[in-house]
Amino acid sequence: MSDKSGQVGGRIAIVTGGGAGMGRATSLRLARDGHQVAVLDIVGDSAKTVADEIVANGGTAVAFTCDVSERAQVNAAVAHIRRELGPVTILINNAAIEDFTPIAEIEDAQWDRLMAVNLKSMYFTTQAVLSDMVDASWGRIVNLSAFGAQLGAPNMALYTASKGGVISMTRSLAVELGPKGITVNSVSPGFIDTPMARRAINAGLFPVPYEQIMATYPVPRLGRPEEIAAACAFLASEDAGYITAQVLGVNGGAAT
């Protein structure tokens, strides 16, 4: 099967924040599914480690040090990927930073930085790859949101506001881009065992012990990054061509 770009089978995928946690797992899963993967991460060594792991397992991958909150860096990375691998038709917007500051203590610079990484970056990356998807009449955009954006969480107004914006942008982009053959969906992770989550657990940043939170879930455990990767891979597949504007919760059945 091929699209207008001439790609057959595996496609060119970008995973932002691909050097660790859910991004790493998603990069590995997409490569396992036969796609060529560009791993973008602000920590270049982590991105290279993941790309090297993909290559060692017989896949094709490149790594880029990229602060996705900076348009110039995003555009430069995408231009390089296009030259080296080809047109990009899968975009996984995963890069994010967390915040646990009470609303009364949030500072302007803190707000601006988190919104730039968690939300504005998705606008930059989508614009950067959009022409490739339009030319191919085929595209898959998967934006990582968060369970907290749907439920709310104490001391996380800044973080959940950014992720709520991701959900709203996802739905609007789906409406706008659907006629061009591009689907746009969101995966909303629950409590996933990632380095970011472990830092928060170890610092005692949650209002109650995480075991107490998970005990309320129908599946009472931390999720695995690979389970998020599986959801992203499905939404990026041919089989998901009639699914768009959706928020897929991967959260152990936690109630919203």
Keywords, separated by commas or semicolons:
256 residues; 7 strands; 7-stranded parallel sheet; 15% strand; Rossmann fold; 9 helices; disordered N terminus; single chain; alpha/beta
- Average per-residue pLDDT, rounded, comes to 94
Give me the CATH fold name. Answer: Rossmann fold
Overall body shape: globular
Structurally, how many domains make up the residues? 1
Strand residue percentage: 5-15%
**How would you name the CATH homologous superfamily?**
NAD(P)-binding Rossmann-like Domain
Oligomer: single chain
CATH class: Alpha Beta
Number-wise, the strands total: 7
Based on the coordinates given, report the CATH architecture: 3-Layer(aba) Sandwich
**Annotation field: number of helices:** 9
Category from helices, strands and their pairing: alpha/beta
Show unreliable segments: 1-8
Q: What is the helix/strand order? A: EHEHEHEHEHHEHHHE
State Rg. Answer: 17 Å
Strand arrangement across the biggest beta sheet: 3-2-1-4-5-6-7
Helix content bin: 40-55%
Our measurement of the CA-to-CA distance between the termini, rounded to an integer number of angstroms, reads 39 Å
For the largest beta-sheet, the strand count, sense and barrel status come to: 7 strands, parallel
Q: Gist?
A:
The protein has 256 residues and is an alpha/beta fold. The protein has a single domain (12-191, 224-248), classed as Rossmann fold.
